[in-house]
Amino acid sequence: SSDVVPQAPEDPLFGLMAAYRKDTFDKKVDLGIGAYRDDNAKPWILPVVKKADEILRQDPDLNHEYLPIAGLPNFTAPSQRLMLGADSPALRENRVTSFQTISGTGAVHLGGLFLSKFFRTSSKPTVYVSNPTWANHNQIFTNVHLPIATYPYFSKQTKGLDFDGMLAGIKAAPQGSIILLHACAHNPTGVDPTQDQWKQIAVVMREKSHFPFFDCAYQGFASGDLAKDAWAVRYFVAQGFELCIAQSFAKNFGLYGERAGCFHFVTSPANDAATTVGRVASQLAILQRSEISNPPAYGARIAATVLNDPALFAEWEENLRTMSGRIISMRSALRSRLEELKTPGTWKHITNQIGMFSFTGLSEAQVLKLRQDAHIYMTKNGRISMAGLNTKNRMRLGLAKRRKAPV
Length: 407
Ligand code: LMR
Description:
This protein is of the alpha/beta class.
């Protein structure tokens, strides 16, 4: 009976959001969830998304019918090109199968479910995730009964990448493990390998016959250049790896609640592409059908409208630069403010780190003190969503200092 259901803890991130909403202090600051905010701390509907929305509303043929199980073909096709590059050898050789998913989370889940059923070993492979990683990774893979382990990633000393640790960790993982990699703009640290380091990672992955699982939730946020942000994925594909990718459109289109995303499975060039892709797609279709039947239409239609139109696409790139540019200017503003205040420690990592987040190095006690004393909200691991800062509230950190909070 339901008497035996134990109480589970609240989701830390959504719990934080609820606590922020409840706080009645007028100068409270939300640096929690990774969702873009404009300079007035408000959600930003991308102008290109507004345009696409108007175009869709004028379409007399639009209806609310079911999408196919694999999703909207004119969404999944440009999503492949965006991720892999229009000239990708995998696309040319028809080695890719793509399913529209419930955003990035749904893509990670569908991939996890597929691998837990069909991965090449008889025993369940272990999924290696970076330490730290997006908290939900652990939960998603655990739910599909895949064991989880971690590889080192972040150096507390340098507040940058622990590359030697990462490489050694991947090397030490049992032959044929699944290695979860953040394609760009690592969450929560804001620290990515360089291209040269990615090449070394690929060598080790090849030696150990590991399977790369890329999570790409922030394409366009790391460098401001969509192709550059997909470099690691494209490099691994060019190296002939069989791999999969979870692609989210939540952040780069600001379509958070619409749940637009894609799962891509790229089969190895060594296989007979036509039959392998067909078999993989047939199993994904069964999994998708039993879980969600077919994906939601609206967000995918918006993204498709933009992705398939060169003028709108160019406008989207401009909107992306607006977001990434504002985040970069907030990084400099925060760093100079902390340095101006002679806050103990070094703050160079704030501007070295990239993407939506900064891993500040603040301890849990400091994070909680900031919340209590200064009404500044961030996750307990000291991650801040840079988009939560703006030209108005960045001075609040000075206020925190005067109140003898830790920064
Ligand atoms: C985050 O890490 O803040 C975002 O990816 C939102 C989420 O779903 O956790």
